[in-house]
């Protein structure tokens, strides 16, 4: 998903939108802006930021959790899935908010300093997956087509032994080399943890979160799997009319909750901190569906929504933390207009406690 395009834009003068152009209406606590740099891990950085904001809300404690722990575990699980599909599934660096929660539930999490700094393994200061991707994908494709590195000298008819066992070590070694080896135990604030005991200590119920969407090609008030390339786990989202989805988003923010957002940032999403539609379009359910069906609107980025603001004319905007570093946007923060949000939202991911259960029913 969206790698840091600003890497190419450092040759251009950076223009930011000052906070003085907007009046803050709601601002919920978040942790610092991070930089995914040259990696397609927006889903990871945004959702870890969401988890950190949830811990802030629940406990008042500030954590810096490790995105690369999640990336290592998630890419391994995706590799297993692709091999079990005999290569009839693709690998890409993208993912979704739910991936992070699935990994934490199964494998736990660790603090940032329990693993190597993101770019240190390839001699970079920030997360750089260029070399990793060029090595990982062809090796995975080889295994997914039935190959194995152990040559069968007793059966020279075949160049490779086809087996489901053994290839994982080769894939895991690549992940550990370029992303970092996940610790089995570590020290944090004078205590020894495993990733699972550390996750348990953070004070969140990892099953108390859900994904909400709004499309008409499936029935409302039912779960369905959004048909998007990066949502490889096929986890369900709850389908609601657009106005109800937006109401749930607003209610969550008003009640002190942050929300993970997945959607489209092509077109009118400025790298200088503004996301708005040209003119004053009326964004209807029908327009959303039309643009989804003709691929004008896709799923290509994940960010964190943490507040509401209004511009000088009183127009409503959402305050969004991005993962492209502080040199983009307004020190890493974007202002996304309400009409942009209505049109370009693929899903919102949030705590169930933020939702009025009446809004989930007809």
**Percentage beta strand:** 15-25%
Unreliable parts: 4-16, 151-163
DSSP helix count? Answer: 10
Largest beta-sheet details: 10 strands, mixed
Rough outline: globular
As a percent range, the share of helical residues equals 25-40%
**Mean pLDDT over all positions:** 91
Order of helices and strands: HEHHHHHEEHEEEHEEHEEEHE
Q: How far from one another are the termini?
A: 34 Å
Structural class given helices, strands, pairing? alpha+beta
How is the secondary structure organized here?
Blueprint: H1 6-9, E1 22-27, H2 42-59, H3 67-84, H4 97-107, H5 130-144, H6 167-178, E2 186-188, E3 191-193, H7 195-201, E4 209-213, E5 222-224, E6 237-239, H8 242-254, E7 259-263, E8 274-275, H9 285-293, E9 301-311, E10 316-321, E11 333-337, H10 338-344, E12 345-351
Parallel strand pairs: 4-6, 8-11
Antiparallel strand pairs: 1-9, 2-3, 4-12, 5-6, 7-9, 7-12, 9-10, 10-11
Helix pairs in contact: 2-4, 3-5, 3-6, 5-6
Model description:
Helix 5 runs antiparallel to helix 6. The protein is built from 10 helices and 12 strands. The protein has helices spanning 6-9, 42-59, 67-84, 97-107, 130-144, 167-178, 195-201, 242-254, 285-293, 338-344, and strands at residues 22-27, 186-188, 191-193, 209-213, 222-224, 237-239, 259-263, 274-275, 301-311, 316-321, 333-337, 345-351. The chain is an alpha+beta fold.
